[in-house]
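Colleagues,

For the teaching module next term, I've prepared a clean inverse folding example: a structure given as tokens, and then the sequence designed for it. I'd like students to try predicting residues themselves before seeing the answer, so please don't circulate the second half yet.
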């Protein structure tokens, strides 16, 4: 069985020891390195190329977020799981923007941490339940992107004049007389206008012309 090679980055030695002790109970994990600060973490990532890096956020010197950005620069395919005690909204959002595959709080169960490591190693995202709820709230609360207005088709001078007259409520007979068109020619031009505006009637064409600001 191929083991998942893990790098543990946390400034507290007792935390690193605890994680190592926990994960050593699982034969599919291999703790290949530890780091207590950003510089050491970056060096370990470059030297060891772990499958998953467990990264704390608050550390002396460079924060975990800064380290994450640097890791993504030197190892774009690196898989990073944030493992921290802090669930501040800004931390979570910045970690996701910076490329973290997961965000797990240190109070999760052993089984959840193990599942999260496996998920991140597979290229999936993993979150603590509290973080998942936050992410869902943020996504559902985000305003929907504006719908761009439809692109207006090009009309020749006769078609533009016909649209103006349609909006004014002129009949086909009045339009044909004013533009010196035969009824056959007018009907052909109306069909072209309807097709360009994707409508089926004079009334719809007039309404669309007003809505799109064509008249």
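(Answer key — instructors only)
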């Amino acid at each position: 069985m191929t083991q998942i090679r893990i790098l543990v980055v946390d400034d507290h030695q007792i935390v690193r020891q605890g994680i190592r002790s926990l994960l050593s109970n699982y034969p599919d994990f291999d703790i290949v390195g530890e780091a207590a600060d950003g510089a050491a973490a970056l060096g370990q990532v470059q030297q060891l190329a772990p499958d998953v890096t467990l990264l704390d956020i608050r550390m002396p010197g460079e924060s975990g977020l800064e380290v994450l950005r640097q890791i993504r620069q030197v190892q774009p395919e690196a898989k990073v799981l944030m493992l921290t005690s802090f669930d501040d909204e800004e931390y979570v959002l910045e970690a996701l923007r910076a490329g973290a595959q997961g965000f797990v709080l240190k109070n999760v169960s052993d089984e959840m941490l193990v599942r999260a490591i496996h998920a991140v190693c597979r290229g999936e995202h993993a979150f603590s339940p509290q973080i998942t709820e936050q992410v869902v709230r943020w996504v559902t609360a985000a305003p929907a992107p504006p719908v761009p207005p439809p692109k207006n088709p090009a009309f020749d001078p006769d078609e533009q004049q016909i649209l103006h007259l349609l909006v004014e409520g002129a009949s086909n007979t009045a339009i044909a007389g004013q533009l010196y068109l035969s009824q056959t020619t007018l009907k052909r031009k109306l069909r072209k206008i309807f097709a360009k505006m994707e409508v089926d009637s004079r009334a719809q064409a007039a309404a669309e012309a007003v809505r799109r600001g064509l008249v």
